[in-house]
Structure to design on (511 residues):
């Protein structure tokens, strides 16, 4: 009996000092996590987590759309390898499109599933088996105004007999082998953002978090258990479910493809922000985790999301909104009407939410429930003397937004050219409303023009000859539009479209 007890103690000590167990008592260890997952009969493949500058990629001919990038904000995406026993999605060398990362688990005796429909850069959209899990261990940004993480349904297969040609926001990817697909780019559930993220340390900035994505509750639970064993506690683990009963999971031809975005906006320290983006791929760990034998389905339901709105309309917190807005409008027209004609394109709701887009077969252009999106119809700037004036209520001042901004977009790439954030709005309406207006700072007036006339002018760069790249600017005569975002009311979601006063636009054309 004594000898058996000694043997038991020796075995226990050996187990206690294994690399995986040691990490649970020390610092969290991604390598130990990989070992634990493989011991639990998961295939584990490493991907890359990196910044995606859509305007840069499009300017270099490597991206077919900028997807309405929020100019001035950064985007970080997954580049996942193909699933085990799945063909590799091939790029196009002459356009600089790299192949998707090939799977490291490819048994020649097993017939592969078809490749994902290719969309540059390879690997940022992917199919998922219903029991697969994605694990991201990532540093969090330095102090900034806003950051978030969110899943997307990226492309879905064309419906038989439906013509997508000429439909706004639609284009085709794929081929006969992969299936023909079109974009949805619709959000899945709520975001994990800086107001609700689980993280290490005492701050939501400059610490670390774990994101776990999956459609099977049993697979996710097994991965979370291994995360615990590798030293990651629940306080830093964020589970982002995909409801497999809604989407077409799987690797087969016609299955939906998914993607993931991290947004970062308005960092306090620009050097630290640049360092974060430049080195995120080295400092983050991304795993595609696949059960060796497919697990029985145990789906998540569709998430109950935070409702938009708090029941208080913006007009209720302003003294005389309609009179003040009309005062601004009349003053602008009076100042410029002698030498200019003008048009007033009206803002409308521009981006549906993810599930609405999916069921309506509509391109949501990367929506986010943290934001409210408004957009004008197209217009053109026909000469260097044409300009745009935006004006309206500063939603950040009325409590309807943590931050708000306006972006001038060029068509057809939807590339953000010029962005104006609410931090620039302070005092911009006083000259138009007068010193006697009690709440002038609740309004803004800003120009977008080729040349600066005053401190409340944002410059519109040209496309031709632009040293950064052609989609960092726009030339005269090219269709453009204005779009407006408002991020995060204190409810935890974007404001209700029915509780705000829409932003306004006047386009002045030189006679």
């Amino acid at each position: 009996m004594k000898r058996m007890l000694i043997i038991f103690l020796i075995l226990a000590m050996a187990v206690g000092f294994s690399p995986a167990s040691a990490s649970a008592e020390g610092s969290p260890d991604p390598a130990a996590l990989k070992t634990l997952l493989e011991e639990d009969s998961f295939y584990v493949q490493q991907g890359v987590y990196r910044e995606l500058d859509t305007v840069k990629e499009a300017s270099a001919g490597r991206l077919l759309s900028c997807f309405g990038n929020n100019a001035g904000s950064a985007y970080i995406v997954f580049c996942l390898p193909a699933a085990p026993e799945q063909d590799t999605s091939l790029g196009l060398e002459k356009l600089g499109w790299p192949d998707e990362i090939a799977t490291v688990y490819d048994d020649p005796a097993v017939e592969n599933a078809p490749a994902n429909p290719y969309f540059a850069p390879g690997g940022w959209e992917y199919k998922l088996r219903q029991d697969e899990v994605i694990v991201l261990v990532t540093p969090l940004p330095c102090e900034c105004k806003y950051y978030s993480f969110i899943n997307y349904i990226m492309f879905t297969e064309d419906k038989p007999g439906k013509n997508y040609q000429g439909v706004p926001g639609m284009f085709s990817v794929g081929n006969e082998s992969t299936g023909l697909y079109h974009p949805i780019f619709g959000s899945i559930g709520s975001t994990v953002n800086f107001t609700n993220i689980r993280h290490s340390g005492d701050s939501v900035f400059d610490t670390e978090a774990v994101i776990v994505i999956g459609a099977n509750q049993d697979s996710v639970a097994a991965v979370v258990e291994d995360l615990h064993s590798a030293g990651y506690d629940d306080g830093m683990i964020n589970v982002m479910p995909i409801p497999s009963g809604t989407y077409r999971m799987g690797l087969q031809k016609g299955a939906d493809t998914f993607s993931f975005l991290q947004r970062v906006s308005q960092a306090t320290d620009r050097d630290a922000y640049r360092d974060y983006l430049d080195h995120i791929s080295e400092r983050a760990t991304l795993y595609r985790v696949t059960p060796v034998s497919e697990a029985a389905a145990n789906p998540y339901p569709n998430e109950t999301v935070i409702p938009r709105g708090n029941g208080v309309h913006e007009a209720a917190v302003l003294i005389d909104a309609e009179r003040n807005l009309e005062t601004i409008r009349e003053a602008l027209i009076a100042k410029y009407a002698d030498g200019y004609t003008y048009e007033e394109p009206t803002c409308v709701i521009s981006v549906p939410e993810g599930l609405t887009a999916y069921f309506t077969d509509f391109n949501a252009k990367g929506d986010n429930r943290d934001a409210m999106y408004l957009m004008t119809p197209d217009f053109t700037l026909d000469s260097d003397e044409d300009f745009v004036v935006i004006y309206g209520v500063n939603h950040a001042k009325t409590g309807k937004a943590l931050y708000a901004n306006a972006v001038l977009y060029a068509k057809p790439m939807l590339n953000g050219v010029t962005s104006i954030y609410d931090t620039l709005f302070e005092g911009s309406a006083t000259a138009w409303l007068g010193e006697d207006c009690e709440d002038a700072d609740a309004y803004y007036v800003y120009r977008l023009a080729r040349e600066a006339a005053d401190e409340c002018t944002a410059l519109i760069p040209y496309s031709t000859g632009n040293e950064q790249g052609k989609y960092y600017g726009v030339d005269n005569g090219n269709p453009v539009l204005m779009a407006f975002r408002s991020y995060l009311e204190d409810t935890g979601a974007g404001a209700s479209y029915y509780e705000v006063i829409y932003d306004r636009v006047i386009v002045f054309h030189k006679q």
